[in-house]
Amino acid sequence: MLQQLPDIGKSLCALLKMVFDAFPVESTNIPQEIRPIHAKVEDLIQKHLATVTNIQPSLDTSTANAMIGFTWSIVKTLTEGQKRYIDWFLPALVRVIQRLMKEMLTASNALSKQVSIIENKNFRHFISP
């Protein structure tokens, strides 16, 4: 399923772009049939962003990254036609960036400790007879 996300995402983005370009969110004359689409898309974006920012043991990194990429593709696509669309999701996107930074720092610290241990072993091996 994760391998199919890019293809599904591209198709979904193309479809949503057509709908959102034809019926912008901020328009006053949106047909009743389109309002639920806007609401569902916004709800799903919020849910995806909340899922990846609430660190869950059951959510592995590759799944979280796929969800982030998928959600970002949709937000980016919709923002191309309506620049202010991203404003609604800025707090959630900032939390995603904070999570990614935290994971990056954790990985960097772990790598730094591993390098330090290896260097210490090599140094002891070098000075011992």
Q: What's this model, at a glance?
A:
By secondary structure, this protein is mostly helical. Helix content is 74%, strand content 0%.
Q: What would you say this structure looks like, in words?
A:
By secondary structure, the chain is an all-alpha fold. It has one domain (2-127). It has four helices and no strands. The termini are far apart.
SSE arrangement:
Blueprint: H1 5-22, H2 35-53, H3 61-81, H4 90-127
Helix pairs in contact: 1-3, 2-3, 2-4
Keywords:
129 residues; mainly alpha; 74% helix; elongated
The first-to-last residue Cα distance is: 56 Å
Low-confidence stretches: none
The number of domains is 1
Annotation, overall tally of beta strands:
0
Specify the overall morphology: elongated
What's the alpha carbon Rg, rounded to whole Å? 21 Å
> What profile does the largest beta sheet have?
none
Order of helices and strands: HHHH
Helix content: over 70%
Task: Find the structural class using helix and strand composition.
Answer: mainly alpha
* Beta-strand fraction estimate: under 5%
How many separate helices? Answer: 4
Mean pLDDT: 79
Quaternary structure classification: single chain
